[in-house]
Amino acid sequence: MHYLDFERPIADLEGQIVELRKLAETDPGMDISADVARLSGRAGQMVRDTYAKLTPWQKVQVARHPGRPHFLDYARSMFDEFTPLAGDRGFGEDQAVIAGLARFRGRAIAFIGHEKGNDTKSRIKHNFGMAMPEGYRKAVRLFELADRFGLPVLSFADTAGAHPGISAEERGQAEAIARSIEAGLSIKSPFIATIIGEGMSGGAIAIAAANRVYMLEHSIYSVISPEGAASILWRNAERAQEAATALKITAQDLLNLKVIDAVIPEPEGGAHRAPETAIAAVSDQIAAGLSEMDGMTGEQLLRARREKFLAMGRHL
């Protein structure tokens, strides 16, 4: 288990439980059940208390937790007949964005998701979830395919942002993101986006201009990362904690601001402690969202999506 800085007291308690169990293995006659039960109860309560009052910066840390389930974990659990489609038909394949066709609870769908990877090799392969322009052009290709065949689109945003390198800019990163947003806003199919970890900058909104936008309880969604905002506003990235609060990046803040449509509860201690439970909750929320849009015509879906985004901020 990888513990975050603010979880050190929890780590100490759970470490004591591990040590007790190791001692019991060396001495089968030792009865540790009462001590383990007592420590487990204290640790569980500490987890509940800690996660009930996370600061925005602590939520940033949870959203970035390396053990958090990533897109491919969701896809393998939620989808049948999972068929990725590669390439943008213009330059090449981008592994940071996975897109294709599948069945979700028996229903044919199109999917798009950022994949960060879960070890050094896979993180390098997927460029830590930071897409190049061809990744967003692949997304456009999928949006157009879904529109042509009337397939619902399910997207899963989890990125620190689009790739910021010179090569991406040379290949038209900003234009590719803009085209992807435009394509998402233009399809006449049900479109649901879920922020499962980090939803940063244009890299996230490029695949999240949806009829329904959901966020996991401890995920984050913002126009810029806290570190980036602090560097611009105060010339000091160390003020990222202050920026995280000012940006209103938490799911609860964004629900109040009517930027998203629902917050999906996470297991106690975050999605990284019980990935299967978190994935099941996301699956149920998406199924409910699709049911809400059943019976709507393509024109109604298109108009509702555009009105949703035009209305943002008007009540502030």
Keywords:
single chain, 316 residues, alpha/beta, 2-enoyl-CoA Hydratase, Chain A, domain 1, eight-stranded mixed beta sheet, 14 helices, 50% helix
List the helices and strands and how they pair.
Blueprint: H1 8-26, H2 33-52, H3 56-63, H4 71-78, E1 79-84, E2 97-104, E3 107-114, H5 120-125, H6 133-149, E4 153-159, H7 166-170, H8 173-186, E5 191-200, H9 201-205, E6 212-216, E7 220-222, H10 226-234, H11 240-247, H12 251-256, E8 262-264, H13 275-293, H14 298-311
Parallel strand pairs: 3-4, 4-5, 5-6, 5-7, 6-8
Antiparallel strand pairs: 1-2, 2-3
Helix pairs in contact: 1-2, 4-13, 6-8, 10-11
Shape: globular
Low-confidence stretches: none
Distance between the termini: 42 Å
- Helix and strand succession? HHHHEEEHHEHHEHEEHHHEHH
How many whole angstroms does the radius of gyration measure? Answer: 21 Å
For the record, the CATH class of the largest domain is Alpha Beta
Helix content: 40-55%
> How many beta-strand elements?
8
Q: What structural class do the secondary elements suggest?
A: alpha/beta
Number of self-contained structural domains: 2
CATH topology of the largest domain: 2-enoyl-CoA Hydratase, Chain A, domain 1
What name goes with the CATH superfamily of the largest domain?
Answer: 2-enoyl-CoA Hydratase, Chain A, domain 1
| Residue-averaged pLDDT | 93
Largest sheet features: 8 strands, mixed
User: Percent of residues in beta strands?
Assistant: 15-25%
List the total number of helices: 14
CATH architecture of the largest domain: Alpha-Beta Complex
